[in-house]
Design a protein that fits this description.
alpha/beta; nine-stranded mixed beta sheet; five-stranded antiparallel beta sheet; 13 helices; 14 strands; binds glyoxylic acid; binds manganese (II) ion
């Protein structure tokens, strides 16, 4: 393997352009369901439309594009030496309901801009460079997050995707097939580790550590895991006036106790560092004058410590059972997602830190509270992550925002880091 000159990368880095990044992000934000913010859920026609835009951009640059059975779009720029193991970057194009325009998209926009900078500048590099838009990263629709990258890591199976359902009862497998993907061939989406040398994802932080500390670049060392369940409480729906308090089986009162227990457990010293969220709660029949007979709610437990994550989830479930018994309501709990935290390799953290320093960009090494495709990809190849600041720390809401000059800086560090990986 021969080393190429570092002068090429400096020239390419200098062409990274915020207007182009903004144009891509604005275009993607226009591919949405009606309503506040961006709604482009996993395995919908809108998500596929966003992937087609990405694919077209990559083809315009002369890259070869493939779409795998799980819906991941992968564009490849050929290498110039005998090194066949690729370097890569990318993120996801789906969103949560009423989400923002940067979560995932920022990393795909950065990937597109890196590809453009490398192609236009003719920057010499050795390895194949792959640019990836992952499918179905958000767990908001089906519970389990990162399904595209899980398929790339070989972790997704037909029975797995056939067992996940959205709130309308549609299985992930059916949703995939409905948009022309091939759940029955999901195993073919697995990446061969021998074809990979490393992967670096740029993403918005989705918290406020970078903003509060005035640091433009975050380098992720650990990505939190998550345990997710849906809890169904069934009591007796009946007249709100005619039923005495002591004769009720009110599913919502039991659910309210469960929600408070989630907060209490996450706040106590034994579980400090864990985040527990009840983000979805449905009440039936949802009438002012009827005692709630059925409540279904989600619980999302996140932690950088996998043992504490699972211990917290177990504690919660036993407390829910005790509450249900005490309130004389029936309880049914289904696991809808379980992902371990991942420690990213120090080699990649050091490599990105060295490139940020060489670029004159202040950085801090930090954990990620959110899930990311890199979590799955790190099972296939050495993987790293670059964070850029999120205004007000807000994410998964329409107000999500990152300044374009911060995205330019992040993309420049990303390009340098991918090049350093190319040469390593
Ligand atoms: C992905 O955005 C997550 O929910 O962590
Ligand atoms: Mn997200
Ligand atoms: Mn994301």
């Amino acid at each position: 393997m021969t080393r190429t000159s570092a002068i090429g990368v400096e020239a390419a880095v200098a062409t990274v352009d915020g207007n182009r990044i903004k144009e891509f992000i604005d275009l993607m934000a226009s591919i949405t369901e009606a309503g506040p913010g961006v709604t482009r859920l996993a395995y919908t026609a809108l998500e596929r439309q966003a992937h087609e835009v990405f694919q077209a951009r990559m083809r315009e640059l002369g890259l070869a594009v493939t779409v795998d059975a799980a819906g991941n779009s992968i564009a490849e720029l050929a290498g110039t030496s005998e090194c066949s193991a690729a370097v890569g970057t990318g993120s996801h194009l789906d969103s949560v309901p009423a989400g923002g325009r940067f979560d995932g998209i920022a990393g795909v926009a950065a990937a597109v801009e890196v590809a453009r900078a490398v192609v236009d500048s003719g920057m010499p590099h050795q390895r194949p460079w792959r640019f990836v838009a992952f499918a179905a990263e958000e767990g908001a629709r089906f519970g389990q997050a990162c399904n595209g990258s899980r398929a790339a890591s070989g972790a997704s199976t037909l029975s797995g995707v056939a067992g996940l359902r959205d709130s309308a009862g549609i299985t992930m497998a059916d949703a995939m097939a409905a948009v022309g993907l091939r759940p029955d061939a999901i195993d073919t989406a697995a990446w061969d580790p021998n074809e990979w040398h490393g992967f670096i994802e740029l993403h918005v932080e989705q918290g406020n550590v970078l903003e509060v500390t005035g640091t433009p670049i975050g380098i992720v060392d650990v990505i939190s895991g998550s345990s997710r369940v849906m809890v169904e409480l069934s009591g007796t729906a009946s007249h709100s006036g005619a039923t005495p308090m002591h004769l009720r089986r009110d599913a919502l009162v039991a659910a309210a106790e469960c929600v408070l227990v989630c907060d209490q457990i996450a706040q106590n010293s034994q579980h400090r560092g864990t985040r527990v969220t009840v983000g979805k709660l449905e009440v039936e029949p949802s009438s002012i004058t009827t005692i709630p007979g059925r409540v279904v709610f989600s619980v999302d437990v996140r932690d950088v410590d996998g043992d504490r994550q699972r211990a917290t989830a177990r504690d919660l479930l036993s407390r829910f059972h005790a509450i249900a018994k005490n309130r004389d309501v029936d309880i049914d709990i289904k696991t809808i997602g379980d992902t371990s935290p991942v420690t990213l390799p120090a080699r990649l953290v050091d490599l990105v830190a060295a490139e940020a320093a060489a670029h004159g960009a202040p950085y801090r090494i930090m954990p990620s509270g959110a899930s990311h495709d890199t979590q799955q990809i790190s099972k296939v190849t050495s993987a790293g992550m670059i964070f850029v600041p999120s205004r007000g720390g807000l994410s998964h809401v329409p107000e999500e925002w990152t300044a374009y000059e911060e995205l330019v800086l992040g993309t420049q560090v990303l390009l340098r880091a991918i090049y350093a990986l190319d040469q390593a």
